Amino acid sequence: MTADLTITDVRLTPILVADPPLLNTQGVHQPYTPRLIVEVVTAGGITGVGETYGDTRYLELARPFADRLIGRRASELNGLALLAHEMAVDGSQVPGRVDAGGLRGVRTADKLRLSVVSAFEVACLDALGRALGLPVHALLGGKVRDAVEYSAYLFYKWAGHPEGVPGEKDDSGAALDPAGVVEQARRFTERYGFTSFKLKGGVFPPDEEIAAVRALAEAFPGHPLRLDPNGAWSVETSLRVARELGDVLEYLEDPVLGTPAMAEVAARTEVPLATNMCVTTFAEIKEAFTKDAVQVVLGDHHYWGGLRITQQLAAICRAFGVGVSMHSNTHLGISLAAMTHVAATVPGLHHACDSHYPWQSEDVLTERLAFEGGRITVPDGPGLGVELDRDRLRLLHRRWLDDDGALRERDDAAAMRAADPEWITPRMPRW
Ligand SMILES: O=C([O-])C(=O)C[C@H](O)[C@@H](O)C(=O)[O-]
Ligand SMILES: [Mg+2]
């Protein structure tokens, strides 16, 4: 007989995890970033885990949502989004414009709710899989591949966080020019076997970033390369970069902000455009696809609302002949496992997925997931196939408790001000 899947308790544990000083067009990563670990406890004694953003606005939604789950069954997945829909979102959190700090497109009430729901959906799927003795990918209809390919996510970075800012040491050194970027790429290939490379751009003037991608192309001839300035360029600058790097780019990611500008660029270049900024909700798909503004959508189960919705997104993309891959922010192993399970079920995943995981020296798992040949083997054990390390979780939660609130919201511009007090979030397009 299957264990009783009635939800009797939900544990929410906000944590702060170490993050290196990675640069993007908004600023730099804080030394610690907030994440939320969700545990769904069932009457039969089985617990499932999930993970999402840990900033206060997500926590404030997760708490009442968790209360509403008590007494429901972990298998009742279709009702989760409806349940979340009933929850009011503080209007000041949804200015209805580009989410500058988050680099993930518009901020809407629904997107906030979905970002919370996704962690609960993953936790429920984990519990269900454990109860049935089935991996999450089997609950999603079964894997179509045994391993999921990831790309090396390269960043311009400083050797350490600014003077006087407490943080963990990382051994990767600075990467502030083409040689530094190539060196970082070499280290990533040696350690993890990645064969495709994405450079987070929008940090330096475009000519410097063109030179870095050229240097990567010389160091790794024939390997797929991507450049993502998070909308920092004008249409004309984007077209110039596309002309200069067209022979080596797999795609350009969000060179400009917004669907109309992306459509303008797409109409004038052969280089495919990818996005995790202008197609981030179902409502944004119609305009982008009918205008042929994007050729690859980078899904993300966190803000799209879960693993099953990610499969729906992939199906819509397939119908329109648009490619799919996956976006990533700072995340831990629970999310990497979730990403790997869903990616394993998506037919026609032609581009290696993004993952920040190599940058995360800390995790809440008893055993880290390992990249081999740039791939993660799809776990076949029950549920997600990962185990929570309670001691680590407690430690990282203690860090969150001890924080005075300064680090509980990710704010890359504020983190940059520790090095440059004059820094303000740049107006777009920057170049
Ligand atoms: O556009 C993207 O790929 C991202 O938004 C990924 C991350 O937010 C990345 O840019 C970061 O964390 O600096
Ligand atoms: Mg991007």
TrEMBL record:
Give the pathway annotation.
Carbohydrate acid metabolism; D-glucarate degradation; 2,5-dioxopentanoate from D-glucarate: step 1/2
* Pfam families linked to this entry: MR_MLE_C (PF13378), MR_MLE_N (PF02746)
Boundaries of every Mandelate racemase/muconate lactonizing enzyme C-terminal domain copy: 178-272
Positions contributing to substrate binding: H29, T108, Y153, K198, D228, P229, N230, N276, H327, S328, N329, H356, R410
| InterPro entries in alphabetical order | DgoD-like, Enolase-like_C_sf, Enolase-like_N, Enolase_C-like, GlucD-like, Mandelate_racemase_C, Mandelate_racemase_N_dom
GO MF, one annotated term: metal ion binding
Stretch forming the signal peptide: none
Residues in the active site? K200 (proton acceptor), H327 (proton acceptor)
Q: Superkingdom of the source?
A: Bacteria
The EC class name is lyase
Question: What keywords are assigned to this protein?
Answer: Lyase, Magnesium, Metal-binding
Per the UniProt entry, the Enzyme Commission number(s) are 4.2.1.40
Q: Could you tell me what this protein is called?
A: glucarate dehydratase
